[in-house]
Amino acid sequence: MSNDNKRTKSLLLSLFIVYNLIFIASISNAGNSYFVSSTGNAAWTACTNASTPCSASTAMANAQAGDLVYFRSGTYNPGPSCDRETPALSPSHSGTAGSPITFKAYPGEIPVIQGITCGGPSFGTKNVEWIVWDGFTGTILDKTGGENRFVMFVDSNHITIRNCDLHGVVKTDYHNNALIESLRSSYVTIENNILHDNNGDPSVVANTTAILFWDTSYAIIKNNDIYNNTIGIYDKQDGIANAYYNNHIWGGAGTQTCNIGFQIKNQMTTPTGHDDQFYFNVVRNCGMGVYNEEGTASDLMKNVKIYNNVFYSGSAGIHLSGQATNTEVFNNIIANYQNALRYTSGTSMSTNLSNYNIFYPSSIGWNLDWGAMTFSSLGAWTATTTFDTNSSVMNPQFSNAGGVNPADFKLKTGSPAYTGGRGGSYPSYRGAYSPGPGNQRIGRLNPPRDLR
Question: Residue 220's pLDDT is what?
Fold first, then answer.
């Protein structure tokens, strides 16, 4: 071996040793990193050592800005909490912009948090800021004759939940049941989670959903796998400028497992409107891809952008009410739906824009006023509504149409969807995947990325 090779090998070995020392120090840094177990009972000052962990409740009471709290494997009973706005496990203090409080699964381990039968959330936040929940799993429990949720953010800003696997319950007797609910909060980030099997007969559990927002604004919801929920994501009231992208939302056999992908409620009390954006999502086997729910005459959904999504298989790709204003529906691929677009007509419809979309197959239809006017051709739809003058009915050439992975809805080489998009501030292609290899990852990153 040459001297240069020896020096290189020695340098690499030294760097490896230094890296491991840094990693070890990062998880045992006194005063900043703490350890929790399901059987821990040490004092807070002692649980800086992994061999003397404290309880989850001790961590909630004591963690301060900048602290990193590792949860070891085990099943955590959060304790009773029957108040829908008070999570059983909720930190008492806030983090800061540069130093959030992070509650995180210990590397390679899975902490399980139990559900609560009386209706309160198992974990979340209330009246705090800059908190991160990372790497937890658990199952919501049914409250007979009442609503339940598993995670709750109340009057909290800059909250993140990521890398979690949350399991729902088949609900048969009540409406509002959510895996994650946010109330009067802003700058919530929900990323890289699996949210699944929170469902039931949609005629009974119409609001049962994976994610439910009330008065929540400037949220980011990205790279989640959301499946077999009656509603995937429900932005129910007074949300402003929420962004939903790179999510994979789907159902199994029958619409009960996914009645609606995205639901937006026309129920605004603020003058600025929704300004929500939905883009680069794959929604498949859901009754409706996007459903803008009817409100009262004074309710308006404003300035919503729905672009570069794939909607595949169901009754209606996108349904907008007549109270929607300044909505832009561009560059989407809507395939195998009974109706590609279903709009409720009204005076405000003239302010909306729909164009540069791809519809498929030729048997797809368009609809106004819940069937009062139906159209079997794109030309007839365009002549009546003036929408979609640059849209097309054609085969988008998915890589594996009807597949079970979001990558099945990438486009084959030479697909006509690689051109013809609106361009400008929007992509110049149609669908959720850009031409070539691209960097888009739709659905949960697997294995989960450490996003801290």
Answer: 97
Q: Give the integer Cα–Cα distance in Å for 276 and 292.
A: 12
Count CB neighbours of 18 within 10 A: 10
3-state secondary structure 270-289: CCCCCCCEEECCEEECCCEE
Q: Cα(420)–Cα(274) distance, rounded to whole angstroms?
A: 28
Phi, psi of 51 (to 5 degrees): -80, -10
Predicted confidence band at 419 (pLDDT cuts at 50, 70, 90)?
very high
- Digit-coded pLDDT (tens) for 18-58: 334 333 344 434 348 999 999 999 999 999 999 999 999 99
Q: How far is CA 340 from CA 214, 290, 311, 419, in A?
A: 29, 11, 9, 20
Q: What is the mean pLDDT of the segment spanning 308-325?
A: 89
b vs e for 320-353, b when ≥16 Cβ sit within 10 Å of the residue's Cβ?
bbbbbbbbbbbbbbbbbbebbbbbbebebbeebe
User: Cβ distance 256 to 200 under 8 Å?
Assistant: yes
Residues 148, 82: Cα–Cα separation, whole Å: 9
Tokens of 138: 């658990």
Work out the number of other CB atoms within 10 angstroms of the CB of residue 390. 12
Which of 121-135, 260-274, 316-330 is least confident?
260-274
CA distances from 447 to 122, 190, 192, 207, 345 (A): 26, 17, 10, 31, 45
> What is the reported pLDDT for 270?
53
Residues with Cβ within 8 Å of residue 111, at least 6 apart in sequence? 38, 71, 72, 73, 74, 76, 105, 135, 136, 137
Distance from chain centroid for Cα 249: 9
User: What are the φ/ψ torsions at residue 136 (nearest 5 degrees)?
Assistant: -100, 160
Q: How far, in Å, CA of 102 to CA of 92, rounded?
A: 13
- Please count the CA atoms within 13 angstroms of the CA of 171 that sit on its side-chain side: 35
Short-list 188, 68, 210, 180, CA closest to 128:
188
Q: Hey, where are the domains in the chain?
A: 1-28, 31-134, 168-452
Q: Which two tokens stand for residue 365?
A: 């239809």
CA distance 193 to 154: 20
Is 60 exceeded by the pLDDT of residue 450? no
Dump pLDDT digits (tens) for 208-217.
Answer: 999 999 999 9
Higher pLDDT, 328 or 200: 328
* Residue 345 contacts residue 369 (beta carbons within 8 Å): yes
Residue 193 neighbours by CB under 8 Å, 6+ apart = 161, 162, 163, 164, 165, 166, 180, 224, 225, 444
